[in-house]
Amino acid sequence: MYLTSDEERILRGEHGDSLRKAMEILVAMGKIYDADRLIPITSAHISGISYKNIGDAGLDFLKDFCKGVKVKVKTTINPGGIDFRRWKELGLDEMYVRKQWEIVDVFKEIGADIILSCTPYYAGNLPKEGDHISWSESSAVTYINSVVGAYSNRESGISALAAAVTGRTPNYGLHIKENREPKVRIKVKTKLSDASQYGVLGYIISRIVGNMIPYIEIDGEIDDISLKFLSASLATYGGIPMFHIPRVTPEWRDFTLPKESIEVSGEDFDKAMEYFIDDFDNVDIVWIGCPHVGLDEIRFIADFLEGRRVRSELWITTSRHIYRRAEEAGYISKIVEAGGRVITDTCVVVAPLGSRFKTLVTNSSKACYYTRGVNNYFVRVTSLKKCLETAIEGAWVE
Ligand code: F3S
User: Fold this and answer.
1) Ligand 1 nearest atom to the CA of residue 291, by list position
2) Phi and psi at residue 126, in whole multiples of 5°?
């Protein structure tokens, strides 16, 4: 792999140990994936920063790795394990707060933006079409490749960090235009009525195509929230890093299409929905915000809840950035008056909630996957409206 003389110097340790290690990671990846060179990036987003997940070993590694370096590009970080302003109210452990602070301090020190969110594109880190970037939150990677047309591989937290501090990434995979070509054509023959159904569609497509890039033909308008849910689900269930939709995504006209297509019918949806409905009566928590909600979703929730009261726990997770804007617009107070909680910096999966809840209703198929797998919850997925009706009733609404 070709390296510039500056990159060679970094690799020899002439710019310090931390940068040498970062460069070693990028060069090793480049060799594995047969990259011809490193390319400059404009943005990085780093996941894997929750103390619950990385523990003391991860914290020590980060402290050592980041010693004396600064990020070279706009860099943001994923949710951690704590809502720093509401951790007492949420019953979270003080030890976790201290440890999570230490992790966040490492990122502050290197110059990252402490957004603590998995929707960086709603929180000030929005690359342009054609930008090369290094992101490591899978749902955000699929969104940014597909919906925005920026170029990112599915990075790990460490490789995104190495890219952030060097401003470079190896040139392979989705950084090369021809690798962004759709390999399979999907025709959706049923009408989807709600963003949560795009999550179910992502599950169905993943089951059919594995991790191939799909070209999805579907009738009707698709809003940004639906694209976010589709991205999260394709990334979760199939490891799919991008998709194309005619007249919706920016690169839909750039490739020759596969001739054969696979149809997804209404019956396929009905069958898939069985996977998303566990058997339980009492609802402990309704969770909206996987991935973190944007302003439109908060506005809908606030308007829906105005003058009503929830009986179950209702958690809405978002970034600090969106929280501030929602607060100014008066949405937060409406949700709080109804008994809901708007939580920043974390989510139900990465917070150390222990066995506090057993049953969860959500509009997110990604949340379903992780709260079953990580939290051992029983889960049901339904539309945002039904989630809110369920929270108000305190029980599942048919
Ligand atoms: Fe974000 Fe947590 Fe879901 S990090 S994508 S809200 S599992």
Assistant:
1) 5
2) -120, 95
